[in-house]
Amino acid sequence: MSQKVDWANFVAQTEANLPNVKDKADDSDDEAPENQAEASLLAKIIRKGLVANKNDIEVQRQDPKSPLYSVKTFEALNLKPNLLKGVYEMGFNAPSKIQEMALPTLLADPCQNLIAQAQSGTGKTAAFVLAMLSRVVPDKHYPQVLCLSPTYELAIQTGEVAANMAKFCPEIEMRFAVRGEMLPRGTKIAEHIVIGTPGKVLDWTKQKHLDLKKITVFVLDEADVMIDQQGHQDQCIRIHKDLSASCQMLFFSATYSQEVMDFAEHIVKNPIVIRLRREEESLDNIGQYYFKCSTADEKYNALTNIYGTLSIGQAIIFCRTKKMAEWLSQKMSNDGHAVAILSGDLTVEQRINVLDRFREGKEKVLITTNVLSRGIDVEQVTIVVNFDLPVNVEGKADCETYLHRIGRTGRFGKKGLAINLVDSDSSMKILRDIEEHFGRKIQYLNADDCDEIEKIGQ
Ligand SMILES: Nc1ncnc2c1ncn2[C@@H]1O[C@H](COP(=O)(O)OP(=O)(O)OP(=O)(O)O)[C@@H](O)[C@H]1O
């Protein structure tokens, strides 16, 4: 996994790819406007929107309203020299706003508890991983840091970030507590950092492999879903109860409902609360559009029409259910469109394999469910498609999940696109509710109205 944001290279690559798409789309405009117009228009939007400004990140760093704005340097944040080396090796030149604001609290002595919210892709993971690595006392050979993630994939990704950052700290040892990891009876974990999912961690504490009493730093990533979802909530509360009173509690997420925030403040003693910007503002970098279709088949056609554009960079297509993801992937493959699928039905090995291939760019278009809606960081994802809009158990708009899904693009100051496919009055209503929730218009992508689209793309 590449941690380095190489904007210039990405722009160069994307621009190198664009003429083909444009040529193809322009030709098709003449010959088959019905079928190709959407692809052509999308290509224009991408040209204008995604590669508009080569110095974009630097410009954002100077803008006090940007999540990348920061007046400090990593040196000023008092990191250990070998950690600092690791941070620079990852290509991080300056901290983002959440890193600048959270790190003094994360590293404070005596320890401070923290509940932090900052938008997707602005460096939260990097911030808490730095704290985790900074707190380890290497010559004490027992688990001192526990980090919980909601999914297998996210736990592995966090471990990879930690391993990259600790490149010059070979004395720090880590272990994953995730599905598929087995320990012989009687084994006591001796690694300093344990990163895992709540189910496995609980399992290992019950079997006495893992002693939570000596944990000094507890990180809850995607804290809102961990607190809000019944299964996770029970497990997290049980784990939390076994931690010592002096353990530092660090909660991170891009979204918190008021209820979840109240609960978090109830279980975390005297926390510092950092909320960088209102969640709706985190949509700044992501152009949002929708296609209006009449039937599910039309949705499928719209998707295949823009397939060429999706694979300019990389794209993630979200479906509501595993069954739908399966159906879509099968149908697209049968029709000659290369796609990969990642759903909860795959084995652990298959899931890792698919994600690795996607990260390496061997797969351009990935179909998935909400299992990948949070935290997954793949630099080249330029477009997110909601084949189905996200809904909660009551069938109403799930705005948090929408934000997390589209946050798979537009990461660390980059531009991204979110395309929503709407096929019924009820899905139109969900779209309108999402618009209202964030106070943002989701633009109608009208294949017949080029002028309008040209304006949107600017
Ligand atoms: N200071 C930095 N300079 C440059 N790149 C950075 C910096 N901090 C993080 N990044 C990169 O930005 C991307 C997003 O960071 P990260 O995954 O930490 O975001 P996040 O806020 O945890 O996102 P999410 O809410 O989706 O979990 C990653 O590719 C990461 O390597």
From TrEMBL:
Residue span of motif Q motif: 72-100
InterPro entries xrefs: DEAD/DEAH_box_helicase_dom (IPR011545), Helicase_ATP-bd (IPR014001), Helicase_C-like (IPR001650), P-loop_NTPase (IPR027417), RNA_helicase_DEAD_Q_motif (IPR014014)
GO terms for MF: ATP binding; hydrolase activity; RNA binding; RNA helicase activity
GO cellular component, one term: nucleus
Domain Helicase C-terminal, residue spans: 302-453
Every DEAD-box RNA helicase Q domain range: 72-100
Keyword Iron-sulfur attached: no
Protein name (Swiss-Prot/TrEMBL): RNA helicase
